Amino acid sequence: MERTPESLSAADARRAALAAQGFADPPPAGVPGGRAVRRVLDRVGLFQIDSVNVLVRSHYLPLFSRLGAYPPEQLEKLAYRQPRRVFEYWAHEASLLPVEVQPLLRWRMEDAHEKAWGGMRRIAAENPGLVAKVKSTLEERGPMTAGQLEAENGPRAPRSGPWWDWRESKLALEYLFWAGEVSTVDRRNFERRYDVTERVLPPDVLATPTPDRPTAFRELIRLSARCLGVATEPDLRDYYRLKPHQSKPAVAELVEEGALIPVQVEGWRDVAYLAAGARIPRRVGATALLSPFDSLVWFRPRTERMFGFRYRLEIYTPAAQRVHGYYVLPFLFRGQLVGRVDLKADRAAGVLRVQGAFGEPVVRPGPLAPPGEAPAGRSASTSGAAARRRQFAADAADALAGELRALAEWLGLDAVEVVQNGDLAAPLTSALLAP
Questions:
Q1: How far is Cα 355 from Cα 335, in angstroms, rounded to an integer?
Q2: Is 432 in contact with 405 (CB distance < 8 Å)?
Q3: Fewest CB atoms less than 10 Å from the CB: which of 20, 210, 216, 427?
Q4: Which 8-state DSSP code applies to residue 163?
Q5: Are 275 and 225 in contact (CB under 8 A)?
Q6: CB of 120 within 8 A of CB of 174?
Q7: Are 370 and 401 in contact (CB under 8 A)?
Q8: What is the pLDDT of residues 87-135, one digit of tens each?
Q9: How many Å apart are CA 34 and CA 422, to the nearest integer?
Q10: First-residue to last-residue Cα distance in the chain
Q11: What gap in Å lies between CA 205 and CA 199, rounded to an integer?
């Protein structure tokens, strides 16, 4: 019988997390197809959607990080064609997730009248007739975009905020989406087309009984644990954006059941929970560029605790105040987060632009002696460690160059160009120029 661990080293915890997220899986043979895409989705549970397109829409990147160059149409087929296997809803922010999870989120739909964003709640409370009209229009006319609905449902209203340009009918539509009464049929140039949910989701999903709330919370935490491998209660809670009063009883029940095993992780202040059956490989050599919204790194406190990597998204930070750049991707190398690159797909020029490249301490150049030479006052063993560190940094730069070339090719770009910004820019440029 395999002994259940009572504690984990920090390295064990990292490997468990990487394995749970699919980074220890063997690469698919040939061009990744629908089965490979579904395997990744099973590992990570959902893909977060974001509108920023300076590189590529974020929900396409987690698959590239784990599979390499895959056809994006494989994800679109699962999400927007029949038989539909994936749907859009508010899970961890706006997300693509398996249709089987929909019953576990019906409690959130039921709470739309009090939990949806302010503008949506206001429309539902002050103008229920418009909400009903928007839904009846979809019932009668079939799939429509928000723009088409706005044209049919009254004059344009003032802007609702500095970032968003939602009119009254758009708010009504988004309320219905939150409430689960309408769903996304597909997207045209990233704009959603909506229809009533009974014409979008599979009949067997719609016929699945709605679980009571404690059951739904428990099953969502079970899914979170499977996707995270090892996690604290706040980590588990964040995955599907639950509240403490929802997640803590669920965690306690799963511990009692034996589905979660309390463990102490080296360097972690809070108790952690290992998912029963979680893999802890002896080695994870994964190398990948990660979306800012990848589930491996989206909960920033966990990213810092797990990898010693402090990561903040600077999209909404004024340009002069940014530290690393506008759209910065962490770089995973041999199971560690060793750097970050600010990327932009310049489609007009056919170039992937690296607008900044920054290393973590493990790959930063320093005053190291040439291999085989011990600096004065240093032992040969110290010199050997320095040489190994220097080799690791060189290997990381080579691997990053390879990932950038592969990303550019996948995006249909012809070249990678590096701006000399950041301590990794020079070694990365050299690696890209190497034959």
A1: 24
A2: yes
A3: 210
A4: S
A5: yes
A6: yes
A7: no
A8: 999 999 999 999 999 999 999 999 999 989 888 999 999 999 999 999 9
A9: 38
A10: 51
A11: 12
If pLDDT is split at 50, 70 and 90, which confidence band does 372 have? very low
Q: Does residue 390 surpass a pLDDT of 90?
A: no
User: What's the pLDDT score for residue 369?
Assistant: 32
Six token digits for residue 238: 């964040």
Please report, as a single letter, which amino acid is at residue 22.
G
Residues pairing with 186 in the sheet: 193
Helix pair 300-307, 10-20: axis angle to 10 deg: 130
Cα separation, 252 vs 348, in Å, equals 54
What is the C-alpha separation between 21 and 175, in angstroms, rounded?
Answer: 32
For 218, the enclosing helix (H) or strand (E) is helix 213-228
Rounded CA separation 367/377 (Å): 14
Chain Cα centroid distance, residue 323? 22
Prediction pTM value: 0.91
Q: Which of 431, 314, 409 is nearest to 363 (CA)?
A: 431
Instruction: Using alpha carbons, list the distances in angstroms from residue 241 to 92, 245, 246, 299.
Output: 6, 12, 10, 11
